[in-house]
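Sequence, please.
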């Protein structure tokens, strides 16, 4: 049999595999299977840095291959893989092969010796076994690695990498005990007390055990100008705010057992959680979660400098637990009082969300900002900013009723669809570029027929397919985000009906409605102004309303002030 094939492969770099070497041997196995029978590879789909546990639909190149199977002009009649364990994991074969069978595309596998026969039970059984072996291999690797980490931590107390805790710095600890790694120049490291930061850690424990709170300690350190952990190590914390000490930084230091001099491992684990329990084929996502303290692995003895004696650390944990701040799970409690604009109000000074608070039998929204943080941030921020809900309730409800009034539906639709003309132009341009890609692919396939170098042309084809896949994704997103005018009108009429009764509605129901509408408000106390905007899901529309009223009440971008 002679024919054109697409090659499918995959490599995961999490275990330091060389993508080029892996691609070469997988491609070599595929060619060894088809070339003696006159086959040639004209297209390649090779995923890099993608775990085998990820379904085909979520691997960029594998999903592109599945999408191309439906194209009668794809340029190949069959697909060959280099190793089934690289391509299939668990039950992925049973979820994927029916697509090949539906479009009449053969799937060649070296272990089968040729194409998979859908009617051959032995072939189906073999592929199922390889999927199970792939899953078992991955699980065995995980178990071996975890067992090795447990042993290394408990018996050797070896530093296992990662960011050193605040108060420590890394020093060289000699060559790596693994001969091959030592030959590559890899060395061990260990933690050593930082001459300045270690004193801060000791002081934090002393102050906490004397009865001071987390915020009190954080404010004191900020007031004294002591650099926060992020500011003390800016190279490793470029993604974090480095302006001042926070309660969370103090809490992290007070709960880190490594300050006792022991190496501690397995404080966290990675769980694989189904993306959608109603559609198992979508696969899992990995989430990091905390383990119970009983599962933490401690070194048998201290292995680096002790900043906090073990008994002092235990005292701090007991104190936290006695204050109700222990490791027990936080239980969510229903709000005692209703807040109509919960999650909708931001502070105009610092742009943080304002929290609901109940004073004198009324709902308020407040923003508390310690003076030490304000000085560090160079922000002129009052210690507490208050906004009374009753001051804005009538204006917001009246404004919404006006925006969604039947007489203004047409004007609102014009605003919401103002960008559609530009969107149509963008869509037309995307379709034009996709057609260019398809023209190029036909030209490349013609070049193959004329005897051009298959390897060189395959690279051109793969690059063009990647561009086409990206453009098609942009086109789908653009078409999905544009809502028809009729649908917008239907939604706005429905919202208008809700706006008529919203003034007398239950505060909890109003809060849900405002969040669905995308209501966002920013309070500027110095201007006596509340700036409000709506961002409904169908499109982005912006409006502003002041504390003092609407001038005029219409769905257009503008501002008004009141004294």
């Amino acid at each position: 049999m002679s024919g054109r094939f697409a090659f499918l492969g995959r490599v995961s770099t999490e275990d330091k595999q060389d993508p080029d070497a892996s691609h070469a041997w997988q491609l070599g196995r595929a060619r060894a299977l088809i070339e003696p029978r006159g086959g040639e590879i004209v297209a390649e789909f090779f995923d890099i840095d993608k775990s085998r546990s990820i379904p085909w639909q979520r691997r960029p190149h594998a999903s592109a291959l599945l999408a191309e199977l439906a194209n009668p002009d794809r340029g190949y009649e069959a697909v060959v893989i280099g190793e089934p364990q690289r391509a299939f994991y668990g039950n992925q074969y049973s979820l994927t092969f029916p697509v090949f069978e539906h479009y009449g595309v053969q799937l060649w596998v070296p272990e089968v010796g040729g194409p998979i026969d859908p009617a051959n039970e032995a072939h189906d059984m073999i592929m199922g076994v390889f999927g199970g072996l792939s899953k078992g291999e991955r699980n065995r690797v995980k178990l071996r690695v975890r067992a090795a980490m447990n042993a290394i931590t408990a018996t050797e107390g070896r530093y296992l990498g990662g960011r050193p805790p605040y108060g420590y710095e890394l020093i060289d600890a000699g060559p790596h005990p693994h001969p091959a790694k030592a030959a590559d120049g890899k060395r061990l490291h260990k933690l050593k007390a930082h001459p300045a930061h270690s004193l801060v850690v000791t002081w934090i424990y002393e102050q906490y055990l004397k009865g001071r709170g987390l915020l009190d300690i954080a404010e004191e350190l900020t007031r004294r100008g002591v650099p926060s952990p992020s500011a003390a190590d800016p190279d490793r914390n470029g993604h974090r705010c480095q302006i001042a000490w926070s309660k969370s930084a103090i809490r992290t230091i007070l709960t880190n057992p490594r300050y006792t001099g022991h190496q501690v491992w397995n404080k966290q684990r990675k769980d694989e959680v189904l993306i959608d329990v109603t559609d198992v084929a979508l696969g899992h996502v990995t989430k990091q979660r905390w383990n119970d303290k009983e599962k933490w692995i401690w070194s048998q003895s201290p292995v680096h400098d002790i900043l906090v004696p073990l008994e002092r650390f235990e005292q701090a944990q007991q104190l936290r637990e006695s204050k109700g701040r222990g490791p027990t799970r936080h239980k969510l409690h229903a709000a005692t009082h209703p807040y109509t604009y919960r999650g909708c109000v931001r502070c105009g000074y610092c742009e943080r969300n304002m929290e609901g608070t109940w004073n004198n039998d009324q709902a308020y929204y407040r923003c508390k900002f310690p003076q030490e943080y304000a000085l560090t941030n160079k922000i002129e921020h009052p210690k507490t900013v208050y906004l009374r809900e009753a001051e804005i309730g009538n204006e917001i409800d009246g404004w919404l009723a006006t925006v969604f009034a039947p007489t203004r539906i047409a004007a609102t639709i014009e605003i919401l669809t103002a960008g559609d003309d530009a969107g149509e132009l963008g869509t037309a341009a995307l379709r034009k570029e996709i057609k260019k890609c398809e023209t190029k692919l036909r030209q490349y396939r013609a070049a193959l027929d004329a005897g051009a170098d298959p390897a060189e042309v395959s690279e051109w084809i793969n690059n063009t397919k990647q561009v086409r896949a990206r453009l098609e994704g942009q086109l789908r997103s653009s078409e999905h985000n544009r809502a028809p005018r009729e649908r917008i009108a239907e939604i706005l009429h429905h919202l208008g009906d809700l706006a008529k009764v919203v003034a007398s509605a239950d505060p909890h129901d109003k809060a849900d409605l405002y969040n669905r509408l995308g209501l966002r408000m920013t309070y500027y106390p110095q201007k006596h102004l509340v700036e409000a905007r709506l961002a409904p899901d169908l499109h982005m529309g912006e409006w502003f309303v002041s504390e003092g009223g609407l001038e005029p009440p219409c769905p257009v971008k503008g501002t008004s002030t009141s004294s």
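Residues 168-263+299-322 form a domain with the Hect, E3 ligase catalytic domain fold fold (CATH 3.90.1750.20).
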